[in-house]
């Protein structure tokens, strides 16, 4: 007999072998079963057959194929549950006196899709709803008698202990606690708990009932909302700075142009002024990107020959580099309605990213563009990408590829793996495509390099 099933005195418990012989029991089971046998007196229940405690008509027999049916049908008893022990072919059955006030509540607990636990005063689990076992994917024999600390971390355990202590002191009828982190099968979930005291007529405080409300999704939504608000504030701030920078740069670049006119041709001063002008133009491009990212874009859409757009961009981006570019672009593609200037900017950043990632001497970039039907099954990364017909542009390099961490944040602003870069290019690409109801994905290709896929809708 495993003692952990019998230590909690709130429920009667007996252990039966496969023929119905009682091999173990607790005090409450002894009292309840003997009380049902008027005129008989027992010093022990061991080695008695449970069928001997049938009702007076004797028509109720123990059935090892359904161990709980005897207790379910016997007058005066309420079946709680049973736990089969395959090791010694025994079963532990828990039951209580039939109580019309308690039965509807208990039946609700068992049948509910919500998560319920009963903990004793030592925070050990003594009862759980069926939905709880479905989540943790463990049997009753593994759970009952184990502490809630099996699933709860240190901080969450302190919160639960404090709630149980308040219930013990009868401070409140219901105590609500938030942000309880429980781990099931190495998956962390966040719950809000409602804790109710459980009192026994004989022993007084016996433990607590706990209603677990899964708030993981709500917490993620709130966190996402806070992140969006912060990013919006940063974007507005960046937009203001970009505007001020552009005003200042206009004056700086204008003065440099005037100074170049007074400088002697091919002199050291002229070279220094050219360097300053080049640096100023780079800063101007950066501030324009910042401004574009922060204030948003309103695409001015028109039907565009996407094949010509891609081919012109390939010639422009890859000119002068040793990296080999292999392009396979479908002829006679349906012309999408796009803002061609914005889409050129979006695709340019992807091409430049592939060019940087590829080896500068033996590197290769493969570009494919074709119409594609995107089904619901293939939309696994972005649920907002509506199934339908798209222009799919694939850009694959033979560089080092992307790790999982990089993939998860590569389209976030100011994130870059390349020294000296501002980390706005791919974030801007993502934003432009979203404004066109499109999408971009990134992953490591089968050949090891990075692969980006751009989707531009045709509907």
What does this protein look like?
The protein is 37% helix and 25% strand. With 459 residues, the protein is of the alpha+beta class. The chain folds into three domains: 212 residues, Beta-Lactamase; 77 residues; 156 residues, 2-Layer Sandwich (Heat Shock Protein 90). A hairpin with a 5-residue loop joins strand 1 and strand 2. The protein is elongated and about 120 Å long.
Question: Which strand order does the major sheet show?
Answer: 6-5-9-8-7
Radius of gyration: 36 Å
Mean pLDDT across all amino acids: 79
For the record, give the distance between the C-alpha atoms at the N and C termini, rounded to a whole number. Answer: 68 Å
According to CATH, what is the class of the largest domain?
Alpha Beta
Structural class comes to alpha+beta
CATH architecture of the largest domain: 2-Layer Sandwich
User: What about the largest sheet?
Assistant: 5 strands, antiparallel
Q: What fraction of residues sit in β-strands? A: 25-35%
Helix percent band: 25-40%
What are the segments in which pLDDT stays under 50 over at least 5 consecutive residues?
none
CATH superfamily of the largest domain: PAS domain
CATH topology descriptor of the largest domain: Beta-Lactamase
Mass-distribution shape:
elongated
The total beta strand count reads 16
The H-and-E topology, N to C, reads as: EEHHEEHEEHHHEEEHHEHEEHEEHHEE
Integer tally of domains = 3
Number of helices: 12
């Amino acid at each position: 007999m495993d003692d952990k099933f019998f230590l909690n005195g709130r429920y009667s418990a007996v252990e039966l072998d496969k023929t119905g012989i009682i091999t173990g029991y607790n005090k409450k089971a002894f009292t309840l079963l003997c009380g049902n046998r008027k005129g008989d007196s027992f010093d022990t229940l061991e080695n008695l057959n449970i069928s001997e405690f049938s009702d007076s008509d004797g028509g109720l027999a123990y059935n090892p194929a359904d161990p709980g049916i005897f207790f379910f049908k016997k007058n005066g008893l309420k079946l709680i549950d049973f736990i089969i022990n395959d090791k010694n072919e025994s079963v532990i059955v828990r039951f209580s006196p039939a109580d019309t006030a308690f039965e509807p509540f208990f039946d609700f607990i068992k049948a509910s899709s919500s998560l319920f636990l009963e903990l004793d005063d030592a925070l050990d689990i003594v009862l759980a709803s069926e939905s709880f076992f479905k989540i943790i994917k463990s049997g009753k024999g593994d759970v009952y008698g184990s502490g809630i600390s099996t699933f709860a971390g240190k901080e969450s355990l302190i919160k639960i202990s404090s709630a149980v202590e308040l219930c013990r002191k009868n401070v409140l009828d219901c105590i609500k606690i938030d942000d309880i982190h429980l781990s099931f099968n190495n998956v962390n979930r966040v719950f809000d708990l409602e804790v109710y005291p459980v009192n026994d007529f004989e022993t007084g405080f016996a433990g607590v009932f706990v209603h677990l409300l899964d708030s993981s999704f709500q917490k993620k939504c709130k966190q996402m909302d806070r992140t969006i608000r912060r990013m919006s504030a940063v974007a507005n701030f960046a937009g203001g700075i970009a505007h001020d920078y552009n005003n200042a740069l206009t004056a700086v670049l204008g003065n440099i142009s005037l100074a170049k006119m007074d400088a002697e041709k091919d002199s050291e001063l002229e070279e220094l002024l050219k360097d300053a002008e080049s640096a100023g133009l780079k800063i101007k491009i950066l501030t324009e990107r910042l401004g574009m990212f922060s204030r948003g874009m309103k695409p001015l859409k028109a039907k565009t020959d996407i094949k010509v757009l891609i081919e012109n961009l390939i010639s422009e981006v890859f000119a002068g580099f040793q990296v080999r570019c292999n392009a396979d672009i479908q002829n006679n593609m349906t012309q999408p309605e796009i803002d061609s200037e914005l889409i050129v900017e979006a695709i340019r950043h992807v091409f430049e990213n592939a060019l940087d990632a590829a080896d500068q001497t033996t590197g290769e970039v493969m570009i494919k563009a074709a119409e594609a039907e995107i089904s619901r099954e293939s939309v696994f990364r972005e649920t907002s990408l509506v199934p339908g017909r798209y222009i799919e542009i694939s850009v694959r390099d033979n560089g080092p590829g992307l790790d999982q961490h990089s993939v998860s944040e590569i389209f976030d602003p100011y994130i870059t793996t390349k020294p000296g870069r501002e980390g706005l290019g791919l974030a801007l690409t993502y934003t432009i495509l979203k404004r066109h109801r499109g999408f971009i994905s990134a992953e490591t290709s089968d050949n090891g390099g990075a692969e980006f896929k751009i989707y531009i809708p045709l509907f």
